[in-house]
Amino acid sequence: MNQIVNDALNSINKGEIAFCKFISANDAGKTGAHQEGFYIPKNSYSLAFDNPGVKGENKENFVKIRWQSDFETTSRFIYYGSGTRNEYRLTRFGKGFPFLTENNVGDLLILIKIASDYFEGFVLQSDEEFEDFFASVGITSQETNQLIPKKITVTAEEKLMSCFTAYLKSLTTDFPSTFDLANNSRNCYIKSHQITDVIVKDNPDKELLNWVFSEYQLFKIIENDRYNEIIGTPFPSVEELVNCANTILNRRKSRAGKSLEHHLSEVFRICNIAFESQGKTEANKQPDFIFPNIESYRNIQFDDTKLIFLASKTTCKDRWRQILNEADRIKDKHLFTLQQGISSNQLKEMYDYGVQLVVPAPYIKSFPENFKERILSLDKFISLVKSKQS
Predict the structure, then answer these.
(1) CB-based contact 374:361 (threshold 8 Å)
(2) Residues 217, 346 within the same domain
(3) Number of other residues whose CB lies within 10 A of the CB of residue 216
(4) How far apart are alpha carbons 65 and 118 in whole angstroms?
(5) Domain final position from 245, 270, 295
């Protein structure tokens, strides 16, 4: 874990309120909306003001912000309530501020209120930093664009919690496998919310996000149960404390990637499309998904245009290059991600290399305007696959 992530975590621990979001094209002024600064959602108004803004009036709050434990700006939280506007923003950073450029789209902004007029700010810029931060504060990439809870609590419905509790009691191992965790959390969610295959087929993007989030809820319940006694007892040495912390963080990070793959598999199964996961291609590479199957991929007589490759990565700001040589026979590759927002420059590079992004439909709005039409939702990707298999 690098120093910036450590500094951000220490700041959250000492601060009053913490907030995080992926920097969007709108924040960086790349959507043509002529708006200024970081957008702050209404659910996080308490970061900036004691009371929510009143429609019809503007109000502002000037604060000092120390960025990356390095330099300070005198910035302004403002609520725009007059005219047709109804939004909060953080503005005024001075000339040469380094974190509102096009290349910052997709970076993770973290703001911590230390005192009423003093904040600390951090910007994380790599997949590894994202994962370390999310694992350490106990949230997922879906739980951004809002305040970071000081103490993570599970707020699922009573039926879902009851199902999770029953599963926890049934466990005979320290931690279940990623497959069992994904499968059981998904089944609990489907049962408690009465989700049918028809509902999944009608809105696969929404249900996938629900499954991913529910699994992380269950994971946190199991984690709290397994480590409650351990963390409540003083560690005999710093080394043992560090080893325990690393075990927890590594398990969180390794679970996230496989989780997404398991849930995508279930969506594809419900949607009645042929696929194979982790089949071996050249040099024993193992793509996450090949459509219709690896046998067709290896069959030189099979029509190349009917082959589809899909990789799945929770974040992909840097790691998209890893998929380029996983299936040589398929030139254009699809990549499903939960990443929210990537700069135009990076997207252009992806598309130049033949990488087509697939993201949950609600996340498409976080990408630069000139690329939104080229990004597929999960629903549209499934339609594409079906058209090749008809």
Answers:
(1) no
(2) no
(3) 25
(4) 6
(5) 270
Please, which residues bridge with residue 20 across strands?
A: 110, 146
Q: Where are the beta strands (DSSP E) in the chain?
A: 17-22, 38-40, 59-67, 71-80, 87-91, 108-115, 118-124, 146-148, 289-291, 308-313, 333-337, 355-358
Alpha carbon distances (Å) from 338 to 8, 254, 355? 22, 15, 15
- Asked if 52 and 88 touch (Cβ cutoff 8 Å), the reply is no
- Determine the Cα–Cα distance for residues 165 and 169; give it in Å rounded to an integer: 6
Whose tokens are 């904040």? That residue is 119
* Closest to 184 in 3D by CA, of 103, 111, 266: 266
Residue 276 lies in a domain: no
Q: Which residues span the domain enclosing 209?
A: 158-270
User: CA geometry: angle at 173 spanning 172 and 178, to 5°?
Assistant: 120
pTM of the model: 0.72
**Based on the domain organization, do 225 and 162 belong to the same domain?**
yes
**Average pLDDT score over residue span 322-351:** 93
Active centre residues (catalytic): 297
Closest CA to 365 of 20, 19, 22, 18: 22
pLDDT in tens, 106-164: 999 999 999 999 999 999 999 989 998 998 888 899 999 999 987 544 333 678 888 99
The domain that holds 313 is classified in CATH as: 3.40.91.80
Per residue in 269-296, is it b (16+ CB within 10 Å) or e — as a string? ebbebebbbebebeeeeebbbbbbbbeb
Instruction: Return phi, psi of residue 248, to 5°.
Output: -65, -45
Per the domain annotation, does 275 fall within a domain? no
Q: Roughly how many angstroms between the first and final C-alpha of the chain, as a whole number?
A: 48
